[in-house]
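writing this on my phone so excuse typos. first protein, seq and then structure
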Amino acid sequence: MVQILAGEKGEGKTKRLIEMANTAIKESDGHVVYIDDDNRHIYDLHYDIRFVEVKEFPIANYRELVGFIYGILSQDSDIEKIFIDGLYKIVNKLNNEDIIKLVAKLKEMSDKYNINFVISANVNPATLPAEISDVLIS
């Protein structure tokens, strides 16, 4: 499953994502990963959540993000949920066509490896392509 929590800056997406991750680790038998562009929220997360800061790993496009996620999966086959906070901060270049391709690839990974993805994005949901409307959560 892929879910995108979209909204303008300051709407509480990160707080909600952290709450979702902390709940997931308590209810999950597997591992939970939280990917962020900086480490501001590392102490807000449960200590069992694997925190990955991508500041040291510049990600230029959605393909590199997918490759980065594959690298994480290659090290841990017990991952059940991956949370990505601030998609547009993590990926330097991302247009609507790229979002469609990214969601399609994450759905494929989700089905193959039985992983759920939850992503926050600082973007007005109305500006996102209709092709991904089924993954938007409010």
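second protein below, same order as before
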Amino acid sequence: MEALYRAYKDRAAFVLVYIREAHPDSVLLTLKDGKEVLEKIEQTDDPFARAAHAEVCMATLKLSVPTVIDQDDNLANRAYAGWPDRMYVVGRDGRIAYQGGPGPGGFKPAEVEAWLKANVGMPDKK
């Protein structure tokens, strides 16, 4: 996902939507303040706590994609059932142009890249 963002960010807008924790009872290796620590990321509907969780996620996964958080109503989660990963491309007309499959098996950046190549062109070589 990060590679797609870096390659196409001049041709397409990217947004990662951080939703509720998919594995709130798991202890995860995270990156906090530049150090790896084991941490249990609690489920929360508090938007400030969720934003802090999103920051830890982005740092741990080394992502620079612009990120927004689903609010306490969990509307994005309910509307798109993104547990735990799902990729969408929204066309200029505001309609969904590509929808990835559910769960980890449906997280296929190569499919999104094929769509981007076909619809916005090849990335610039740098």
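The CA atoms of residues 58 and 123 lie 24 Å apart. thats all i got for now
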